[in-house]
Amino acid sequence: MAKKKTTPAPEANESFSLLSDFDIHLFKSGKHFKLYEKLGAHLVTHNKQQGTYFAVWAPNARAVSVIGNFNHWNSNDHKLSPRWDESGIWEGFFAGVGKGEAYKYAIHSNTGEYLEKADPFAFYAEVAPRTASIVWDHTYHWRDSVWLNERKKSASQPKPYSVYEVHAGSWRRKPEEDNRSLSYKELATELVNYVKENGFTHVEFLPIMEHPFFGSWGYQLTGYYAPTSRFGEPQHFMELVDALHQEDIGVILDWVPSHFPGDAHGLYKFDGTHLYEHADPRKGFHPDWSSYIYNYGRAEVRSFLISNALFWLEVFHADGLRVDAVASMLYLDYSRKAGEWIPNEYGGNENIEAINFLKEFNEVVYGNFPDAVTIAEESTAWPGVSRPTYLGGLGFGQKWMMGWMHDTLHYFKADPVYRKYHQDEITFSIVYAFTENFMLPLSHDEVVHGKGSLIGRMPGDEWRRFANLRLMYAYMYAHPGSKLLFMGGEFGQTAEWNHDRSLDWHLLDYSPHQGMLRLIRALNNLYKSEPALYQYPFDNRGFEWIDYSDRENSVMVFMRKTDNNQQALLVVCNFTPEVREHYRIGVPLRGTYKEIFNSDDLAYGGSGLLNQGLLYTSPVKYHSKDYSVSLTLPPLGATILKLAEERAEFEIE
User: Fold this and answer.
1) Could you tell me if residue 67 is inside a domain?
2) What is the pLDDT of residues 605-641, one digit of tens each?
């Protein structure tokens, strides 16, 4: 990868810069949002010589040089010069340093330390455990213009979000090749085909940015501008995004502006001082992850982070960013005891600098990419996370509905005989479902750290565990909000997720797991084809209770609605293994109804207790409706009804 030739030291007085005075003004004021075009390593031609321009922010250094294979890692050659404008930026052009060269910055700090740091703006990095940056470019011929144009045209229209959350390193491995992970190129075929076949609308990648410790799942970053080299070159990741887009599949990237690790080559004490992080550990050290917290009050740090957000949307054509650990950013006392945190200027626990940063991040992202989406992982009751900043919100497009996830999993873990005592747990989410633009997550966090798999948390024998999981998925897809499911959940992975292993694909040799995958495929197709499930995902106009009070039978009935009443769906969930025949529900319109989905279908591994044929309304008033229908409720099953296209001209008495 790195070349072995030796490049002579440049002439001492040679000068070249990509930075204008206006760039410096924007940088110092925290308003430069395309820093990746100016800082870092850039292949350029200067005075008819091809080489690389380097620029790095290190205001507390007394000397900075570039070291690499081209100078035998000697810090006496290839010295950078400090800019005259007191920006703290060091820069220099070196002819002959080309694409593929490994490099670091050798920093002699004012504190007397000698540091060797990777480039914070590097586009590519050596494969871990090596830690050097690599000179690279982003030359690539994109073929996703149809997708991007359609994304732009449909930006203001409601659309389904069925997100398949993926850890690229463990989705599928090659056991015959020392258990290696698939490459980006292999994922561009295998993952894309799988996601397309099973009907998901988006893929969300756990952080794909460079990280030294594989076991961090990507959440401890050192290379914010570089896709991890474990799976290939940056252009290979572009191919993966491109391939997904060509199959009408969106790409969401996990983004981590909340903290960073203390690895010697990373951002921590970058120039010998606390440059990117707060110096006071009460604000700058994260007790949960033994990592460091950005100084959001420093203008240059805000420019670094917001530039990074735009970088992935602009250069890698990402369709959205899911922002990790937002709650930890909002509160100064997050995971801290008394005396371990510093109140804000008003004496409160709100992190005002981080709040302002998140608002500006969302304003800049949506200002530049109004057709993209930002999603907050935020687990508290902070108001207005997904409300516009001009209304006092944080400005995110969506927010993970953590309360729904916790309540649902807790409810389903209970033996069905006791569920009548917990009816409030499964219905409570609707009380606050429309206070935010919620995404329902069954994420990687729910299948790690001893929690087991999703199916492993379902009660009963094998049949009941699979029936419970099918019911839970059907309830999830029918519930208001967008959807997210972590890889393996779609076929009933039985083991807890292990990042060092492949998913247990051999389970698909067995019919219960095949049925589970067919169920998810059917739910995805239903979700995309029925406007009632996505026209008003965040609005109470799209939901109406029919009955939430039948706790004795552990049944609930609700309606998902559109502007067209005849497209409304009736959803009936039976949370017990008891078959309920002649179960009557109120319906809004006279006519005939048809069952369009039943989680107990034999194709999904169920018992096959379906409502076949047409269901005719009766003029019997029920559930405050003028008409009603009688149907059979399958055991541990969900059934979805829709008004038939040809409505009956009579009623069944």
Assistant:
1) yes
2) 999 999 999 999 999 999 999 999 999 999 999 999 9
> Of residues 119, 324, 353, 407, which has the active-site annotation?
324
Note if 377 is an active site residue.
yes
Which residues fall within 8 angstroms of residue 650, CB to CB, at 6 or more apart? 616
pLDDT digits (tens, 9 = 90+) for 440-492: 999 999 999 999 999 999 999 999 999 999 999 999 999 999 999 999 999 99
Query: Is 74 inside any structural domain?
Result: yes
Q: Is residue 293 a part of any domain in this protein?
A: no
**126 domain residue, yes or no:** yes
Distance between CA atoms of residues 529 and 13, nearest Å: 66
Residue labelled with tokens 């030796």: 6
- How far is the C-alpha of 381 from the C-alpha of 326, rounded, in Å? 12
Do the bridges between strand 555-560 and strand 285-286 make them parallel or antiparallel, or are there none, so unpaired?
unpaired
Neighbours of 109 (CB within 10 A): 19
Which one from 271, 300, 377, 446 is the annotated catalytic residue? 377
Tens of pLDDT along 271-283?
999 999 999 999 9
3-state secondary structure 62-91: EEEEEEEHHHCCCCCCCECEECCCCCCEEE
Annotated catalytic residue 333:
no
Q: Which residues contact 437 (CB under 8 A, 6 or more apart)?
A: 386, 396, 397, 398, 399, 537, 538
- Measured in degrees and rounded to the nearest 5, phi and psi for residue 94 equal -130, 110
CATH number, domain at 591?
2.60.40.1180
Q: How far is CA 10 from CA 48, 50, 193, 312, 538, in A?
A: 15, 13, 50, 33, 60
Find, among 269, 276, 273, the residue nearest to 293 by Cα.
276
Judge whether 620 and 627 are in contact, CB under 8 Å.
yes
Sequence-separated (6 or more) residues with CB below 8 Å from residue 1: 100, 102, 126, 134
Q: In the chain, how many domains are there?
A: 2
**Domain carrying residue 584:** 540-643
The full DSSP string for 159-224 is: ---EEEEE-TTTSSEEGGGTTEEPPHHHHHHHHHHHHHHTT-SEEEES--EE-S-GGGTT-S-SEE
In this prediction the pTM is: 0.95
Give the gyration radius of the chain's Cα atoms. Answer: 28
Residue 38: CATH number of its domain: 2.60.40.10
Cis amide leading into 129 (omega within 30): yes
User: Residue range 583-592: average pLDDT?
Assistant: 95
How far, in Å, are 69, 192, 203, 204, 301 from residue 185 at the CA level? 28, 11, 16, 17, 34
- End residue of a domain, out of 70, 105, 134: 134
**Dist CA 454 CA 448 (whole Å):** 10
Instruction: Specify the length of the chain in residues.
Output: 653
Instruction: Indicate the residue among 110, 134, 158 that finishes a domain.
Output: 134
Triad 595, 596, 601: Cα angle to 5°: 85
- Kind and range of the H or E run holding 402: helix 402-413
Q: Please, are residues 58 and 270 in contact by the beta-carbon 8 Å criterion?
A: yes
Which letter, b or e, does each residue of 495-526 get, where b requires 16 or more Cβ atoms within 10 Å of its Cβ?
eebebeebbbeebeeeebbbbbbbbbbbbbeb
Structure tokens at 333: 């006392």
Q: Tell me the pLDDT tens digit for each residue of 95-114.
A: 999 999 999 999 999 999 99
Return the amino acid letter for 285.
F
180 burial type by CB count under 10 A (0-12 exposed, 13-18 middle, 19+ buried): middle
